[in-house]
Amino acid sequence: MARKALIAANWKMYKTPAEAKAFVDAFLPLVAGHTRDEIALFPSPVLLPTVVEAAKGSNVAVGAQNIHFAEEGAYTGETSIGQLKAVGGTHTLIGHSERRQYFAETDEIVNKKLLAALKHGVVPIVCVGEVLEERESGNTANVLKTQVTGAFADITPEMAKPIVIAYEPVWAIGTGKTATPEMAAEAHRMIRAEVAKLLGAEIAEGMRILYGGSVKPDNATALIGQEEIDGALVGGASLKPDSFEKIVKY
Ligand code: 13P
C-alpha cells in the first residue's frame, strides 16, 4: 500500500506574525502544484490565525504544536482543540519530546490528547523517540514500545486511520546529528511492528511514520527515500522558505 508522504514544519517558538506571513507568502509559490506529498506547517498558537489566513486555498495545511485534551476549562496557557479548529487548524503535534522533557508530558497525557484529537477530527501526529542514554544502553526498542503502547491505549482500529507517528530520536533534534537512514528505518520497523500488534497489520501498513531530527535539504532524500520513512518533521531547516522547499521536493 502506497503511503503519501507528509512533510511537516515544526517552527517551535520562532517567528512573529509578520515573519510567519512573509514565510507563507514566499513559500506558497515555491510549492504550488506540488501534489506528490502533503505539506503542513506547525506554528506557535499565537501565529495560527495569520498562517491559516495566508495559506487559505493552498496545498499547505496548518496545525498546532500542542493541544489540551479538555474541551475547555480553567487551564491557563493552554489551547483547546475547539479553539484550534475555530481558527482553521486541521492537524496537531502530540507528545513532542520537548513537551515531554520540559512540560512533563507523560504517555498517559499523550494518550488523552490523541483520543481528544481523534474525537474532534483533527489529524494527530504522535511523536516518539529515545534519548541518547536509552539508545546507548540498548533500550531503544523498549522505549518505543512503551511510548507507542501508552499513546495508543483505548485506540481501536476503526479510530486509528488518521493517526500519523513521528519518530524523533531526541539525540538528533537540533544537534546536527542525524540518525542514518538505516538506523531510522530500523526504528520505523520497530514502531510499525508495535502498531501491528496493537491494531492489526492493515492499520500498521497504512500508518505514516515520519522521521524528525536534523532533517536538512542535503539529507532529506536519503532519509525519506527509505521505504519505511513516510515523510519528515522538520525543525530548524523549516524556518526558511527555500530550505523547507528543498526538503518538500526531496
Ligand atoms: P530539528 O530539525 O531542528 O533537529 O528539529 C526536529 C524536531 O524537533 C521537529 O519536531
Can you put this structure into words, describing what you see?
43% of the residues lie in helices and 15% in strands. With 250 residues, the protein is of the alpha/beta class. The protein has one domain (6-248): Aldolase class I (TIM Barrel, Alpha-Beta Barrel). It has an 8-stranded parallel barrel, surrounded by 5 helices. The chain is globular and about 45 Å long. Bound molecules: 1,3-dihydroxyacetonephosphate. 1,3-dihydroxyacetonephosphate binds next to β8.
Can you lay out the helices and strands and say which pair or pack?
Blueprint (H helix, E strand, L loop, with lengths): L5 E5 L6 H15 L6 E5 L5 H8 L4 E5 L16 H6 L4 E4 L2 H6 L4 H13 L3 E6 L3 H5 L3 H12 L5 H4 L3 E4 L13 H19 L1 H6 L1 E5 L7 H5 L6 E4 L6 H8 L2
Parallel strand pairs: 1-2, 1-8, 2-3, 3-4, 4-5, 5-6, 6-7, 7-8
The structure holds 1,3-dihydroxyacetonephosphate.
The site of 1,3-dihydroxyacetonephosphate has 14 residues, from β8.
CATH superfamily: Aldolase class I
Counted by DSSP, the helix tally is: 12
The ordered H/E elements are: EHEHEHEHHEHHHEHHEHEH
- Main β-sheet, spatial strand arrangement: 1-2-3-4-5-6-7-8
- The 3D shape can be described as globular
N-C termini distance: 21 Å
The largest sheet, given as strand count, sense and whether it forms a barrel, is:
8 strands, parallel, barrel
Top-tier CATH class: Alpha Beta
- Rg calc: 17 Å
Name the average pLDDT. Answer: 97
User: Tally of extended strands?
Assistant: 8
What class would the helix/strand composition place it in?
alpha/beta
Outline the low-pLDDT stretches. none
Q: Please identify, by name, the CATH architecture.
A: Alpha-Beta Barrel
- Output the CATH topology: TIM Barrel
